Amino acid sequence: MSKRQVHLAAHFPGVNNTTVWSDDRAESQIAFSSFEHFARNAERGLFDFLFLAEGLRLREQKGRIHDLDVVGRPNTLTILAALAGVTDHIGLVGTLQTTFNEPLELAKQLATLDHLSGGRAGWNVVTSSDAFHGANFRRGGFLDHADRYIRAAEFVDTARDLWDSWQADAVVVDRASGRFADRSRIRDVDHHGPQFDVTGTFPVPRSPQGRPVVVQAGDSDEGRHLAATRAEVVFSLHTEFEDARRFSEDLRARLQRAGRSADDLVILPGATFVLGDTTAEAEERARAIRRAQVSPATAIAFLEQVWNRDLSAYDVDGPLPEVEPDLDGGPITRGRVRHVRDVEPLVRGWRERAEAEHLSIRDLVIEVSTRGGFVGTPEHIAAEIDRYVQARATDGFVVVPHTNPYGLDEFVGRVIPLLQERGVYRQAYDPDATLRQTLGLDAA
């Protein structure tokens, strides 16, 4: 029986608490040289695709621009188009909103990227009901939270209808008259739904993949439903083995209920890694990295997001604040996804843990905020990745380095060859493959 093959994607490090900007080799998160190095190195590692996040507004805390956003958040599609010119095989996936975009314009941009890259474009579908972000747009924050995924589902359906409106052979080459589009092979789109009215002819011919690959990263029940009904790749937060397996089983069951095959969706949790020549060295490096990820200022800022209070007077190496969270005041943090729904029991649990384990503010934040991942020798990490995939807990991982732009280099140099030796990872790209084919997905 042949082994299941590992799929890997590379997440460009930048605006998150895992990026260590104090590292001596850290460079700009907006300079093209950073994106180019990261993309070329991910392609050297034969990754399926690279993955860029996008922000629509700089995050704020207590009226100040959040420190990790200080050098800006550039446009994803522009960067991916530029990277198409300096890479040959790796997929190019960008995070793009359904709340503040329109289907025709975004479908046109993605189809254009797919043409420019020779069939390597992908779209990470995200939503927002945040009025803070919405204030940058004409509609403001009008969208109710419950309607986010209703709009997203209709958005994806409309974009696919636009992409599918051209037959593959609609563009005709005639030696006498030149190149033209056969109108009989182009279908006008006539969509009328609760979110969108779109009528007319899509302006871009069918792209090399038929349509770009759709990625989804939401973890709510609505997000999982969108993934099971419309996505082709899901980027999850479930990294621990049993948690990852439960998530995968849930998604596979949802796929079946939606009338789709288990192979119609590639599941890739995000995972960090720390390598060492020995287990002890890797664990020591991991402790140092976690401490660098959570600077004193970052620890206080993290706690303030939960307490919803100014805690700058507290000693980061001292105990948790005795003051209770402010549950009624306006939020002091704007633009950040708030994952905490029930603050009081969370804070109570943190206090119990901090007292039992003698943890300072910074120690506790390190324990509860740093991303789970793989720590160990290259051999150990390769074996763990293989174990997850063979057990169908995942189909692979989105690798999230902790430094920019060189953080992926060590993984490519030391882990990828071991996966190849195990026979679970490609030795080379198929030179003619689209991203859809690289991922093992059916043709669109």
Automatic annotation (TrEMBL):
Pfam families: Bac_luciferase (PF00296)
GO molecular function, one term: monooxygenase activity
Entry keyword annotation includes rRNA-binding: no
Alphabetical keyword list: Flavoprotein, FMN, Monooxygenase, Oxidoreductase
InterPro entries xref list: Diverse_substr_monoxygenases, Luciferase-like_dom, Luciferase-like_sf, NTA_MOA
Residue intervals of the Luciferase-like domain: 27-394
Family: Belongs to the NtaA/SnaA/DszA monooxygenase family.
Protein name as catalogued: FMN-dependent oxidoreductase (Nitrilotriacetate monooxygenase family)
